[in-house]
Structures are given as C-alpha cells and as structure tokens.
Write a structure and sequence with these properties.
alpha/beta, eight-stranded mixed sheet, six-stranded mixed sheet, 17 helices, 17 strands
C-alpha cells in the first residue's frame, strides 16, 4: 500500500475518535498491553514524561519537547489529534515519522492487530512507542488521549507526570463533575513519581492529593509556586518576567499560555531535580521557537495581518473562555468569527458566552461528528448570535474576507477540526 492507502486503511479499520466520537473509545488496557508485549515493550527503552489535562496538553507537551531538544536531548513527541497530516502525531526532534515507517509498520503488524480490533488510538500509540524505540530517543513526551486512568498511554512509567488542568470535556466517559474528571486524570499518577498540577479547585485538589498520597508521589501545585512575576502580551506572543529563569520571550500567543507557562516552568524545575541537564539558554530557545522546533500549529496562530486573521483550536468551555476574553482586547471595527463545533461538545454552554456584537460565519468541519452549519446557525440564534451558514470552512472564510475592512479582526475556531480544515486549505494553496 502507498502511504495514502495505509492512512485510509487505518481510518477504516479503526475509525479515529475525531470521525466517529464515542464509538471509537475502548475502555481498558488489554489491547494496549497485548500490542505492547507483541512489539517487545518498546516504551521501556527510553525515558518518558506523561501529560494529561483538559486544556493545555498540546502547548505544554510541545514546549517541553522544544526545551529538551534545545538542551541536546533526542526527543520523541506523541500528541493528538493531527491537524494536516497523520504523521504529526509522532515526531522525533520535531520531524514527523516517515511515510515509509507508517506503511511498513502496518504491513508488518496487521496480521497480529487485526484480530484484536484495536481502537485507532490504541494502534497509533503502539506505533508511536515503536517508532521512538527505533529512533533511539532519549526521552519521549507522551500526551494522554482521553482521561488518564484507562487511557492506552497509561502503561508507561514516566519520570514526571503533568496534569495541566480540569474542565468539562468528554463527560460521557469521564463523568459530569470536576471531581470525577479529576479522578480519571489522576490515574496517571505513578508510585513515587512526581506530579505537577497546573490548575486546581478545592474539589480537584483533594482528589489529586489523595491519589498522590496513595502512590507516595511528590505533588507540586503550580499555582502554589507561581514562577511568573509579570506577563505581557507582545506582537508575536508573551514576555514573561520569572523568578528563577529571568526574562523569557514566549512564541505562543493566547491568554491561556500564561498558566501553561507556569506549569511548564514548574515541570522544568522537577526535571532538573531528576537529573535532566537543562540550561537557562535551552529554556529561552524552547519558549521562543516552539512552533518551528516542534511543528505546533493552531494556538492563537496568526494567518494574515490585514485584516488580522487568527485561528485557535480551543474547543471546550474551559478553552473558549480564554478566547472570548482575548476578543475583548482586539482593536477592530468588526469582529468576524468563522465558527463550528462537533456534535458531542457542550455547544449551548459555549454559545452562551460568545460575543453578541460579532458577525458570525457558521460552518462545519469535514468530519462526521461536525454539527451541520445550518443547525449551528439555528442554535446560535437562540443566544442572539447573528450570521449566515456556509458548507465549508473555506467558503466561510472567503465570505468573511470579502466583507472585512482592513482593520477588522477575523477569528476561525470552535473546534480543532475547523482549524484543521483551515490549515489543510492553506497547505494546499
């Protein structure tokens, strides 16, 4: 099979969560253990860092990877979902896995995994662990797919666990209270392994402390050790005055990056304490060049300057709150929002906080889970959000651009798959 045929095969034999939602989710670790044993337990051949949380996993994982790479480590990075190409999920020193590796892995292993009927994520996790072993990485940063306790990445024994924050997402699997969601994510806390928690509430703190106590795991609440003295937005990202690391120029924009940065810096302190050789210079380089170093996309990413066009992959109530606050600081004649969501998210809660003064271009991503654009328009009308519907992200953006003045602000988001369609269109143009 060609690479394209192989990826199509993966999508069809084990449809990804992004396409079919809950039907792709398989609870338990039996398939993961079977695959891992068959492949020779590849994840034991390098050090790992495990990252969970509702929001911020991607930014924290990519930034840590950039820092460690700048420090001279050969770094594996496993994240999801991808935005343009499947191989974004498994990178080594920022470079996606080769097409040849993906094709050969499926060709060689399909006779074993087909009878197991693994989920897409179980299969891609096994693929990533194998790739990192083949590439002889020093350390791999492994991002949880969903939850933590029963996530198939949870077979690793990491040097450090990170839980960025807790918000409402995937409640059909993780529970509909912050405490129940925290309990699932706390499942990545391992025996005597330090864990950094980026944000907490009284109810989630209790859960994390209890689990850490059971596992004799040192726990660090980043909010209790705020390493950022001041943060100010710049044209390209954020400038941080920090306690222990001087001035850091962060490439990533978005208000949520301030808390992410405090989480990352607390994680770096722990890694240094564990013997990782991380210099201040490597921290500066990592923060200032994370996108180029790791290929990160879709985090308050500027697409065009006039009119200003920005996309962001925030897709749940926790992430959208930060985005809405950032809208308030945009100096523009008209705020124009290209917007769509998938049908299993908290759509009403998100629509309720979106700005009523904006002009909307409702659309849908090119996946089965996408809420139809016309249906989104009808739901939005109940919250006094006005605009027209468009069948594709490309059509919606063209309409917004055709109506925009040079000093207008255009935002594209609501779903990481809306952003994926946008970036795919850009890559094809």
């Amino acid at each position: 099979m060609t690479y394209e045929e192989t990826v199509d095969y993966l999508y069809n034999c084990a449809p990804p969560f992004q396409q079919v939602g809950g039907a792709a989710y398989k609870e338990g670790l039996s398939n993961t253990v079977a695959l891992d044993n068959h492949l020779g337990n590849p994840h034991r051949k390098y050090r790992t860092i495990h990252v969970a949380g509702t929001n911020g996993k991607g930014s924290c994982s990519h930034t840590l990877a950039a820092i460690l790479q700048a420090a001279g480590y050969k770094v594996g990075l496993y994240t999801s979902p991808h935005l343009v190409d499947f191989r974004e999920r498994l990178r080594v020193n920022g470079e996606p896995a080769s097409k040849e590796f993906v094709v050969e892995f499926v060709r060689k292993e399909r006779a074993f995994f087909e009878p197991l009927s693994p989920s897409f994520f179980e299969l891609t996790t096994a693929m990533a662990f194998t790739y990192f072993a083949q590439q002889s990485v020093d350390v791999a940063i492994i991002e949880v797919g969903l939850g933590g306790r029963l996530d198939c990445t949870n077979i690793i024994a990491p040097d450090l666990s990170i839980i960025t924050n807790i918000s409402f997402d995937h409640v059909q699997f993780l529970g509909n209270t912050l405490a129940s969601i925290a309990a699932e994510k706390a499942g990545i806390i391992k025996e005597e392994t330090p864990v950094v928690v980026g944000e907490k509430t009284p109810e989630t703190r209790e859960i994390f402390e209890q689990k850490a106590g059971e596992k004799h795991a040192p726990i660090i609440f980043a909010e209790d050790n705020n390493l950022i003295l001041n943060a100010s937005s710049t044209n390209s990202g954020y400038r941080y005055e920090t306690k222990d690391f001087g001035i850091i120029e962060g490439e990533l924009g978005g208000d949520y990056q301030v808390k992410n940065t405090n989480t990352i810096l607390n994680a770096v302190l722990q890694l240094i304490g564990l013997g990782y050789n991380i210099s201040q210079e490597s921290i500066y380089i990592g923060f200032s060049s994370v996108c180029a170093t790791t290929g990160l996309m879709g985090r308050w990413q500027t697409i065009c300057e006039q009119p200003k066009i920005v996309c962001d992959a925030g897709h749940n109530i926790g992430g959208v709150k930060y985005i809405v606050n950032q809208f308030k600081r945009q100096k523009c004649t008209t705020l124009r929002i290209v917007f769509g969501m998938v049908n299993d998210k908290e759509i009403d809660e998100v629509l309720a906080i979106m700005p009523k003064e904006a002009t909307y271009y409702f659309t849908q991503a090119s996946i089965r889970r996408a809420l139809p654009a016309e249906e989104m328009k009808k739901k939005a009308a109940a919250y006094e959000l006005k605009g027209n519907s468009y069948p594709t992200v490309k059509d919606a953006l063209r309409a917004a651009q055709s109506e925009a003045l040079p000093d207008d602000f255009i935002f594209i988001g609501g779903s990481c798959f809306i952003v994926a369609d946008l970036l795919q269109e850009i890559s094809n143009s």
